[in-house]
Amino acid sequence: MKIRSRGIIRSRFTIRSRFTIRSRFTIRSRVKIRRSIDVAKLYLSDDRGSLSILIITLFLLLLVFSFATVNVSDAFLAKRQLINIGEVAITDAAHTLSLTRYYSGDRTADDALGDGSVFRVPIDCNSAAINFESAMNSMRLRGQSVALNAWNCVNDEVTATISAQIAPAVVLPLGMNSSTEMISASISATSIIGGSR
Known about the structure:
Layout: H1 2-45, H2 50-94, H3 99-104, E1 108-110, E2 118-120, H4 125-138, E3 140-141, E4 144-145, E5 147-154, E6 157-166, E7 181-190, E8 193-196
Antiparallel strand pairs: 1-2, 2-8, 3-4, 5-6, 6-7
Helix pairs in contact: 2-4
């Protein structure tokens, strides 16, 4: 019996010690896992810093929106400058007199008074087109040449469509805008009232 008791004691001692080692390992690993899960829950449920991310995102959106607004207003200003350039040239072209029509009496009646009693000075369309083209070739919009897209001269009224390319005022990140923008404008002028019939 002594041997058995010793054997039982030994076997119980061995089993208990193995169980104790295993249980300590298992309990410690479970505790570590629970702690890491609790830390993760705390980190995810913590509201600190979420407002700063929202503010930074809104600031970046506001910055991109303001850059786009600056580019749109710059394009509007460039169109206004293009119209001013075109008005100078087309006014000069509208003052090109057709002497043969003027002295022959071939004049266009103007409806300014409603009865057709006044007439406009006749325009020489060929000379007006040459004058307008030469003026456009010498003009520049922000260092870029101005192109003539369309020209029309009918009933002593000249109309033209001109265009130019400009660079954007602010280049947006990630290629959100193009490298150049095409600006076009339509302008027209009539000849001066020359007298009455």
